Amino acid sequence: MAIGLTHYLVIGAILFSLGLYSVLTRRNAISILMGVELILNSANINYVAFSHFSSGNVEGQVYAIFVIMLAAAEAAVGLAIVLAIFQIFHTIDVEAAETLKE
Amino acid sequence: MDIATALFYLVAIITVGSAAVVAFSRNIIYSAFSLMGTFAGVAGIYVFLGADFVAAVQLLIYVGGILVLILFAVMLTHRITDVEITNRAAGRIPALLAIGIFIFLLVQTIRETSWAKAKEILYAPTTARIGDLFLENYLLPFELASLVLLAALIGAVVLSRKELRE
Asked: What is the pTM of this model?
């Protein structure tokens, strides 16, 4: 069986599910952010796979680059928030950080 | 099975396997480092899809930027030796059931849908075409992206500075 669109979509689906599992079960804020990164990567695989197999032009790759840019911004701001939470609560367990101010 | 197919399966197994370590590992350091395997594997998948520029961007930004940020955050917020408490997970069984059903539905949908097919599948360099699109059709989103990055830069600095108490 030749490698086709289905293979890439299945890889994207598995990555998405693993990221969703991380987001659902982890209690550590940084692990939750890692799960979000997995989800964004799976969406990117789908964009590039459809642009290669279905549309035949590069617009999907342009969208993938925008997603990568937003992921970088999200990681910077998200990790800054995690560090701020750690300074106030001395833990980054999301169940311990329930209030917005100390 | 020819070499390209075998290579594809190797890259796919590396990607999915290290993503599984990210999701299931009890030690957050292992999670953070195996995220590198996932990012590099996804870059390999982009190469298989003929997207050379996106693969380079993936390596530069994810492996070179985001992963380093995540490792910094892990090292700054944990007593590294406390393996047991660093990466707690709750509600594993319901979450496993939910994503099992979810992945089954996704794969069924992927298999049964007849996706559109391109007239021809190209393996040409893409950088020039992406640059043309950025400066013609996607000029406004491109400029907005720079604003978003500036806002994220200032926001990260404001959030992580020390509060001055009077």
From this structure: 0.89
Tell me: the pLDDT tens digits for B77-90?
766 555 555 566 77
C-alpha angle A21/A27/A32, rounded to 5°? 55
Q: Who's near B69: CB < 8 A, 6+ residues apart? A: A75, A76, A79
Report yes or no: A75 at the B interface, CB cutoff 8 Å.
yes
Q: Using the 8-state DSSP alphabet, how is residue B161 labeled?
A: S
Q: How far apart are the first and last CA of chain A?
A: 59
The answer to whether B99 contacts chain A (CB < 8 Å) is yes
What residue ranges do the domains of chain B occupy?
Answer: 1-112, 124-166
DSSP B115-146: ----SS------HHHHHHHHHTTTHHHHHHHH
Interchain contact B18–A (C-beta under 8 A): no
Q: What value, to the nearest 5°, has the Cα angle with vertex B42 and ends B58 and B2?
A: 130
Read off the DSSP letter of residue A98.
-
H/E stretch holding B47 reads helix B28-48
Residue A47 has pLDDT above 80, yes or no: yes
What is the rounded distance in angstroms from the CA atom of residue A88 to the CA atom of residue B95? 30
* pLDDT per position as a tens digit, A3-25: 888 999 999 999 999 999 999 89
Report yes or no: A94 at the B interface, CB cutoff 8 Å: no
In chain A, the residue whose alpha carbon lies closest to the alpha carbon of B52 is A61
Per DSSP, the three-state class of B89 is: strand
Expressed in angstroms, the distance from the first to the final Cα of chain B is: 71
Identify the structural domains of chain A with CATH numbers, from first to last: 5-89 (1.10.287.3510)
CB pairs under 8 A between A and B: 220
CATH number of B1-112: 1.20.120.1200
A25/B118 Cβ within 8 A: no
